[in-house]
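ARCHIVE CARD
CATEGORY: sequence design from structure
SOURCE FIELD: tokenized fold
FIELD CONTENT:
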């Protein structure tokens, strides 16, 4: 396991305007409809979408994911953080921390979601800095890409 924290990033073009992408983050019911990667489900525990506002989100692995281990409990990851910067239709910067007793998953990450208009929609890029050493780069890459694909599906249906 690497001893240094790293930066992970993923991008996907979606067929929606930047304003619609931003709105999918602003509404907690929309966010939780697309954010959980893979077969996870989620719930919003707190959500104050404004600069300086706090949030808590729980993501739970389903029973079919027998090898999955949660960071907060056996099958659940709870994250908390705050919104550091909100630029409508452009960028969301937030702090993220797992609620965990395992130091391999501890510490504050900074997650930046950037939206850039394209001829056919929006290029959405997520960049996560200070990723805890307990999260493998391969697993994180898969999870970020799954969330982006879920976002694209959500936006095409709404």
């Amino acid at each position: 396991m690497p001893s240094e924290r790293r930066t992970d990033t993923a991008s996907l073009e979606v067929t929606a305007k930047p304003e619609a992408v931003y709105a999918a983050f602003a509404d907690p019911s929309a966010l939780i409809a697309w954010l959980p990667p893979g077969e996870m489900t989620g719930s919003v525990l707190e959500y104050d979408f404004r600069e300086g506002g706090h949030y808590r989100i729980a993501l739970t692995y389903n029973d079919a994911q027998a090898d999955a281990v949660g960071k907060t409990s056996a099958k659940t990851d709870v994250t908390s953080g705050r919104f550091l910067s909100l630029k409508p239709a452009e960028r969301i910067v937030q702090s993220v921390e797992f609620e965990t007793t395992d130091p391999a998953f501890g510490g504050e990450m900074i997650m930046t979601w950037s939206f850039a208009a394209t001829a056919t929609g929006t290029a959405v890029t997520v960049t996560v800095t200070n990723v805890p050493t307990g999260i493998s780069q391969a697993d994180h890459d898969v999870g970020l890409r799954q969330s982006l694909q879920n976002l694209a599906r959500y936006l095409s249906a709404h």
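CARD ANNOTATION: Strands lie at 6-14, 41-47, 54-60, 76-87, 91-98, 109-117, 122-131. The domain at 6-157 is CATH 3.30.530.20 (Alpha-D-Glucose-1,6-Bisphosphate; Chain A, domain 4).
SHELF: design records, drawer C
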